[in-house]
Amino acid sequence: MANHVLLTSDDHRTLRITSERSAALGDAVMSCLIVPSEFRRVQNEYPILFRLTPQRDRFQALAMFGFEPGENLFLAGERSEARYRPLALEIQPFLIGHPATDGGDKQIHLDLDHPRVATGGEGVRVFDDLGRATPYLETIAAQLGELDAGWQASEGFFAALARHELLEPLTLEITLADGSTNRLVGYHGIAEERLQQLDTVALGELHADGYLLPVFMALASLANVAELVERKSRRGDLRG
């Protein structure tokens, strides 16, 4: 269970964070939430799919790491083979907290129960001996800021996708080594045919709002599905 607290130099002067990557440290996940501002970086590695929230009131974008819960095909022991890790995964165990006062700056919170919080003397320091933020914490703060700005801007992006009907249901079928077929359902992708039918006015609006590039990045990212299948095949889980 999560144990979120406000990060302070007084309370967490000796805090260390484990930087290795492993299943035990929370990296064994099949997908991660992403924001449109990072689609260009994500599409170099992962398929980008969309899925309704559990409340089914809006869509979220996901970088896909595998085909079943707990499967991260980029994870190799205590390292990640991916060249880019989405912000929402990279900033763990930190998260964005609400401002202490109305109109104030947002705060950095910490999940004390996250497995990446080091219990011994190893790991990366968050504060130095004088209570100043280390370069590691400064990097985390910048990533949190980028992620928060991305969340704030994503509402307009998803509204544009809905307005132009640019999302369509997408089913991925994966053939297993025993010949059976698994189906990954419940996801959406960019509707390529609908995108091609948009007139110059609609395309101009999407471009002016900064939404056209992430749309194309999400569409291009589907080429990475074949790479995911190949990764799974190399692990002996799929037929070649």
Automatic annotation (TrEMBL):
Protein name: Peptidase
